[in-house]
Structure formats: structure tokens, C-alpha cells
Specification:
By secondary structure, the chain is mainly beta. 11% of the residues lie in helices and 45% in strands. The longest helix has 7 residues. The radius of gyration is 14 Å and the shape is elongated.
Length: 65
Amino acid sequence: MRFLAFIPHRHRWHEINITRQGAVSPNGRTYLSTYITASCKSCGEMIHRIYYRDISDEQARRWLG
């Protein structure tokens, strides 16, 4: 294991997939939602996010951080 894995870093997301599907929100309603999956280049961490509304691809990439 590399020592640098223990040092906090800013994630650099790549392999970003943005899809739009119907999802059931926590309150039970069905919405057109945006799914985002991405992985970090340096540490390999995967992220999965669901936004319970339809947002643009540009806005979704900006919200990844």
C-alpha cells in the first residue's frame, strides 16, 4: 500500500457517467432523476450520487466538486 493513500487529497474525477432515470425519492414519490457515477484517478474511490430532479450535464459535473 502506498503511503500517499493516507494523505488527504482533492479527488480528480474521471469516467463520469450521467444518466437520467425514474427514481423513488425518500418520501415515496417518483421523479425523473439524474444518476452520476465517477471514479477518482489517484485513489480509485467510486462515487454514486442521485439528484431527485433533472439537472444539466454541466451542472452535474460542477456538483461533483
